[in-house]
Design the sequence.
C-alpha cells in the first residue's frame, strides 16, 4: 500500500458518498454502492485481503462517516450502509464475515467519535446492517448482531467510559427483532 493510499481512500469514499447522496438523497443506497465499489477496487488493486483489507475498511468507514457528517446525513443510516457495503465488497462469509463485521463496527465507531457524532445511532445502524446482511454471508442474525455490537462496544470503550455507556445503552433490548449479545472482553487493549 503506498503512503498516500489511506488518504486517497478516505477522500475518494467521502467525495463519492457526498456526490451520491446529493444525487439521490438515499443515504443507505449511496453508502452501500460507494463502499462496495471502493472496496472491490481496493482489493483488485492490491490483490490481498488480509491486513490491507482490514486497513482499507478503517479508511472506507472514516470516509463514509466524514462524508455523512459533511452533508448532515443520518449516521445510523450511514453506519448500516457501511456494514452492508463492506460485506458486499469483500464477499466474506462465515467466520471471516463475523471478523469483518466486528472490525467494520469498530472503525465506524472510532470515526463517529472523531467527528463528535451520535454513537448510539451509529451503533444501532451497525447492528441493523449486520442483521440485514447476515443470511447473505452465512451468519445467523444473532451472530451478526453480536459481532457488530461487540466491535462497536470495544471501540467505544477505547474512546472513553461515557462513549462505552452510550453504545452499551444502544445495544439494550432488541434491534430489528434481534437481541444483541455482547461478548467479553470489552477492556481496551491500549
Sequence:
Amino acid at each position: 500500500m503506498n503512503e498516500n493510499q489511506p488518504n486517497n481512500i478516505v477522500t475518494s469514499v467521502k467525495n463519492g458518498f457526498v456526490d451520491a447522496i446529493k444525487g439521490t438523497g438515499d443515504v443507505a443506497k449511496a453508502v452501500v454502492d460507494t463502499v462496495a465499489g471502493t472496496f472491490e477496487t481496493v482489493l483488485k488493486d492490491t490483490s490481498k485481503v488480509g491486513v490491507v483489507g482490514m486497513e482499507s475498511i478503517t479508511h472506507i468507514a472514516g470516509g463514509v462517516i466524514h462524508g455523512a457528517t459533511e452533508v448532515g446525513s443520518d449516521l445510523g443510516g450511514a453506519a448500516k450502509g457501511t456494514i452492508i457495503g463492506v460485506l458486499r465488497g469483500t464477499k466474506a462469509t462465515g467466520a471471516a464475515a463475523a471478523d469483518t463485521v466486528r472490525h467494520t463496527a469498530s472503525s465506524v465507531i472510532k470515526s463517529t467519535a472523531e467527528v463528535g457524532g451520535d454513537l448510539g445511532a451509529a451503533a444501532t445502524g451497525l447492528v441493523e446492517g449486520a442483521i440485514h446482511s447476515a443470511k447473505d454471508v452465512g451468519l445467523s442474525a444473532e451472530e451478526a448482531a453480536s459481532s457488530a455490537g461487540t466491535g462497536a462496544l470495544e471501540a467505544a470503550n477505547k474512546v472513553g467510559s461515557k462513549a462505552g455507556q452510550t453504545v452499551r445503552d444502544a445495544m439494550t433490548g432488541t434491534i430489528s427483532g434481534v437481541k444483541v449479545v455482547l461478548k467479553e472482553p470489552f477492556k481496551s487493549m491500549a
Remarks:
- The mean pLDDT is 84.
- The two ends are 25 Å apart (CA to CA).
